[in-house]
Amino acid sequence: MAFRIYTKTGDQGETALFGGKRVPKSHLRVDAYGTIDELNAFIGVLHDAIHTDDDRAKLEIIQHRLFTIGANLASDPDKAPPTPDLTQQDMLFLERDIDDMESALPPLKHFILPGGHPTVSHCHVCRTVCRRAERLAVALHQSNEPVDEIILQYLNRLSDWFFVLGRKLAQQLAAKEVIWKPR
User: Which residues of 112-151 are buried (b: 16+ CB within 10 A; e: fewer)?
Assistant: First the structure.
């Protein structure tokens, strides 16, 4: 029998977590893992806009880590959710890459506005959606539904990574970084 995309089990506004527990689709947990899914989709757009194999490979690694995070967040917290397959090596990967990219960039002395080139703009969309996913994961954690600390750390670091990637791509694409000028 073939797998069917529609099940009709969510027609009344509920969905099932891994483990079987049903929750409203408006539940904070569903919002958190749905935002991770949204981020992953935007990363796919960014991936398709980038032409360097190295950056594309990094984005694919990140997409796999986000699927892991999404699966963890989509699990019934009452049934011991699976330990996220994230390690300190995943954090070091982001931190080292941020440091490497920053070493080739002029020091940041001002706030910059998102934009300058479509690919750079995609980085900023990923950054802001990642920040929203982080806020939702923190809110879930604070609502007495603990989220593994490494997930919170990873999302925090990942949004920084997207910011620096945007700066790096702006430089490669000769796109102007527009400095925010308050009135």
Answer: beeebbebbbbbbbbbbbbbbbbebbbebbeeebebbebb
Query: Tell me, what amino acid is at 123?
Result: C
Fold of the 24-73+121-175 domain: Hypothetical Protein Ta1238; Chain: A; (1.20.1200)
pLDDT tens digits along 41-98: 999 999 999 999 999 999 999 999 999 999 999 988 888 766 668 999 999 999 999 9
Q: What is the CB neighbour count within 10 angstroms for residue 75?
A: 19
Q: Which DSSP letter does residue 77 get? A: G
Contact in structure between 120 and 170 (CB atoms under 8 Å) = yes
> H-type helices in 81-148, by residue range?
88-103, 118-142
Query: CA 88, CA 152: separation in Å to the nearest integer?
Result: 13
Residue 74: name the closest of 12, 161, 151, 154 by CA: 151
Max Cα–Cα distance, the chain, nearest Å: 64
Q: For all residues of the chain together, what is the average pLDDT?
A: 91
